């Protein structure tokens, strides 16, 4: 479904990502782990179109996307969240979800001004979808609060809901458990598995919380200093000597 | 702390002296062909010294004074009130708006010509401020050259009527569209810019338009401006004493009433009123449409908006274009009201005033912006008796306003949406 081939990203003299390859199949949760500054988020930024990679190819459902602008990539169904939550803080929770459904709505100015039946039908459908996802992530009570006033864990969940209303094919989560307490992390765990099982969305995950990563990943890619270090199932990674060295240092 | 305050206060007092000394302390008097410098009277000197001393005292006890002023907000009994539930508020607002519009429709028949003229100007400013509110308040793009679009609207009408004799009603949509086109043209180069950089480029654009109008003498008449811009007609009826254009009839003859200059003024006022209402309602709908939400999303977080599939180009250009369109409308009405326009009317100060209206009213809030437009246009007129001090009073009022209510007169309220699943 997603295939990254020999991806490289160079910033001036710094080679942040060097020949990284990975792939995600349908109905799969794949993780990227690695020490801080290993280049995980840079890989994400290349895939979501914020950076133009200096080398390599990114194929999404058979199409090359490495030179497409970010908004077109997300319209293909490759949607991401951010390491630091990026919500529309002064808009309400519902409005956040409505913005995300922009391309499912009738954006013709005239039909909006006179509120044609088609416009209203689509608007209502978007509201229903927003309501469904708010119920799903447990934010129904907060639907009319400004997103910036939510608690941190709620903001995280809203960000995932905001991606899901766009009906993505592949969801990229950048450290979704950062700043969550253990109970919230367990909930998140359930939510991510449910995304895969119930909504048939593949997930690509960057995460430092090893219990979360080991628990839900089908496969794991390890990156260290911009270079791929290992890939395999959680069990293989857990017993890989290189990975242990990279994380714990040489004994 | 006190030592620091003392030094700061002393510094401020010295600055006051340095500024006041040459401005108030010397007078230039023309004696024949010569100009001599005279010292001011002793009274002025004492006043300057007293002023410096007051500044010194204020700065010395500033924390305590401002703390005391901060308590003033608590005197307002409405301060801690629970916000009204949305349904009640909307109903109240609708009733209020209805009454307001009804009054606005009928009051010009009972007041003086001067007030109606001023009210027309207020309505023009309301249109401008509502349009700029889209760009600055909703899309968060700081535009300091907004007056350029106003100028484009006004000059479009003036030139069309001057060269091709096109009437007000034809020129109104053309003026709006021309301004929108200029908005689009400005939008392209500034797509990548934000904040301060955007402000500087738009400022430059505003000046380019004004200087172009000023120097392209063969077409625009340069600083002499364009005169003889026709008044709007009502189904081919003119409001002048004599009919200027063939085929038209005159209003007072058709209805068999005596000619009165007020008819024209009131008619213009009513046109401006209708256009302002249309502007307000159109923008209100736009705010709740996908395009309005995407403006706000772009203001809140551009990267997140793009990651959700919003194209920066489309969203920014639509904000600039729609904002400019309404400025073009306002410009056409302005040209028709004045009958004469020159680049003088479209200086940077105008942009600044319109921006001040938006900020004072509360970014993004329509009712706030309308109130602020009324206040900002009428206050300087009311303060006319203070002659040269009226701009000073105006400035002081603005500073106080921003200290006490930085969020604006009526900050924007978010619309509450009831979701079906909630019941």
TrEMBL record, chain A:
One MF annotation (Gene Ontology) recorded for this entry: ATP binding
Protein keywords: Amino-acid transport, ATP-binding, Nucleotide-binding, Transport
Keyword Repressor: no
PROSITE patterns given in the database record: ABC_TRANSPORTER_1 (PS00211), ABC_TRANSPORTER_2 (PS50893)
Residue ranges of every copy of the ABC transporter domain listed in the record: 2-250
One Pfam family it belongs to: BCA_ABC_TP_C
Cited InterPro entries: AAA+_ATPase (IPR003593), ABC_AA/LPS_Transport (IPR051120), ABC_transporter-like_ATP-bd (IPR003439), ABC_transporter-like_CS (IPR017871), BCA_ABC_TP_C (IPR032823), P-loop_NTPase (IPR027417)
Recorded family membership: Belongs to the ABC transporter superfamily.
SUPFAM superfamilies named in the record: P-loop containing nucleoside triphosphate hydrolases (SSF52540)
NCBIfam families assigned: PRK11300.1
Name of the protein in question: High-affinity branched-chain amino acid transport ATP-binding protein LivG
From TrEMBL, chain B:
Annotated keywords: Cell membrane, Membrane, Transmembrane, Transmembrane helix
Top-level division of the source organism's lineage: Bacteria
Pfam families documented for this protein: BPD_transp_2, DUF3382
Topology of the protein relative to the lipid bilayer: Multi-pass membrane protein
Matches recorded under CDD domains: TM_PBP1_LivM_like
UniProt keyword Oxidoreductase, yes or no: no
Transmembrane segments: 9-30, 42-61, 92-110, 122-142, 147-164, 170-191, 265-283, 317-335, 347-379, 391-410
Protein's cellular compartments: Cell inner membrane
Residues covered by the High-affinity branched-chain amino acid transport system permease LivHM N-terminal domain: 5-107
InterPro entries for the chain: ABC_transp_permease, LivHM_N, LivM-like
PANTHER family attached to this UniProt entry: HIGH-AFFINITY BRANCHED-CHAIN AMINO ACID TRANSPORT SYSTEM PERMEASE, HIGH-AFFINITY BRANCHED-CHAIN AMINO ACID TRANSPORT SYSTEM PERMEASE PROTEIN LIVM
Name this polypeptide is given: High-affinity branched-chain amino acid ABC transporter permease LivM
Lineage, top ranks: Bacteria, Pseudomonadati, Pseudomonadota, Gammaproteobacteria, Pseudomonadales
Designated gene of the protein: livM
């Amino acid at each position: 479904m997603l295939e990254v081939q020999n991806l490289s990203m160079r910033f001036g003299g710094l080679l942040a990502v060097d020949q990284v390859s990975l792939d995600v199949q349908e109905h799969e949760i794949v993780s990227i782990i690695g020490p801080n500054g290993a280049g995980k988020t840079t890989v994400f930024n290349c895939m979501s179109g914020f950076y133009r990679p200096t080398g390599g190819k990114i194929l999404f459902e058979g199409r090359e996307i490495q030179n497409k602008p970010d908004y077109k990539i997300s319209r293909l169904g490759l949607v991401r969240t951010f390491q630091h939550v990026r919500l529309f803080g002064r808009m309400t929770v519902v409005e956040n979800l409505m913005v995300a459904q922009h391309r499912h709505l009738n954006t013709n100015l005239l039909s909006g001004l006179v509120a044609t039946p088609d416009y209203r039908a689509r608007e209502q459908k978007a509201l229903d979808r927003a309501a469904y996802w708010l119920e799903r992530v447990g934010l129904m009570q907060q639907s009319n609060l400004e997103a910036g006033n939510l608690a941190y864990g709620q903001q995280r969940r809203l960000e995932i809901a905001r991606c899901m209303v766009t009906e993505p094919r592949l969801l990229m989560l950048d450290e979704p458990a950062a700043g969550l307490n253990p109970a919230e992390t367990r909930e998140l765990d359930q939510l991510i598995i449910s995304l895969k099982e119930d909504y048939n969305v593949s997930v690509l995950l960057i995460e430092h919380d090893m219990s979360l990563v080991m628990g839900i990943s089908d496969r794991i890619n390890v990156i260290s200093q911009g270079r791929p270090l290992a890939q395999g199932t959680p069990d293989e990674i857990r017993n890989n000597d290189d990975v242990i060295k990279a994380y714990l240092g040489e004994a | 702390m006190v030592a620091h305050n003392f030094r700061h206060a002393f510094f401020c007092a010295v600055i006051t002296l340095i500024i006041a000394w040459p401005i108030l302390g010397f007078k230039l008097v023309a004696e024949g062909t010569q100009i001599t410098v005279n010292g001011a009277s002793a009274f002025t000197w004492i006043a300057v010294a007293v002023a410096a001393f007051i500044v010194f005292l204020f700065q010395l006890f500033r924390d305590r004074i401002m703390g005391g002023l901060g308590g003033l907000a608590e005197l307002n009994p409405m301060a801690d009130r629970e916000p009204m539930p949305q349904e009640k508020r909307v109903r109240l607002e609708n009733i209020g708006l209805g009454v307001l519009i009804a009054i606005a429709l009928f009051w010009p028949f009972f007041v003086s010509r001067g007030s109606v003229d001023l009210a027309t100007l207020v309505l023009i400013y309301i249109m401008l401020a509502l349009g700029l509110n889209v760009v600055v308040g909703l899309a968060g793009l700081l535009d300091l050259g907004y007056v350029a679009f106003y100028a484009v609207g006004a000059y479009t009408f003036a030139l069309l009527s001057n060269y091709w004799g096109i009437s007000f009603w034809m020129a109104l949509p053309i003026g709006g569209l021309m301004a929108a086109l200029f908005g689009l043209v400005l939008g392209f180069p500034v797509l990548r810019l934000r904040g301060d950089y955007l402000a500087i480029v738009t400022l430059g654009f505003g000046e380019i338009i004004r200087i172009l109008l000023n120097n392209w003498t063969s077409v625009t008449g340069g600083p002499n401006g364009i005169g003889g811009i026709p008044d709007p007609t009502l189904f081919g009826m003119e409001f002048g004493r004599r009919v200027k254009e063939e085929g038209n009839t005159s209003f007072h003859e058709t209805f068999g009433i005596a000619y009165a200059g007020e008819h024209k003024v009131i008619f213009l006022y009513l046109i401006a009123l209708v256009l302002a209402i249309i502007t307000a309602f159109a923008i209100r709908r736009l705010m709740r449409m996908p395009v309005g939400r995407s403006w706000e999303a772009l203001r809140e977080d551009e990267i997140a908006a793009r990651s959700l599939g919003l194209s920066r180009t489309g969203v920014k250009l639509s904000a600039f274009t729609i904002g400019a369109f309404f400025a073009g409308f306002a410009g056409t009405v302005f040209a028709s009201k004045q009958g004469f326009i020159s680049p003088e009317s479209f200086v940077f100060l105008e942009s600044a005033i319109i921006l001040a209206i938006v900020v004072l009213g509360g970014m993004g809030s329509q009712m706030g912006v309308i109130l602020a437009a009324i206040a900002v246009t009428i206050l300087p007129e009311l303060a006319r008796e203070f002659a040269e001090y009226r701009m000073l009073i105006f400035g002081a009022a603005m500073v106080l306003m921003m200290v006490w209510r930085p969020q604006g007169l009526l900050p924007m309220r978010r619309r509450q949406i009831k979701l079906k699943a909630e019941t």
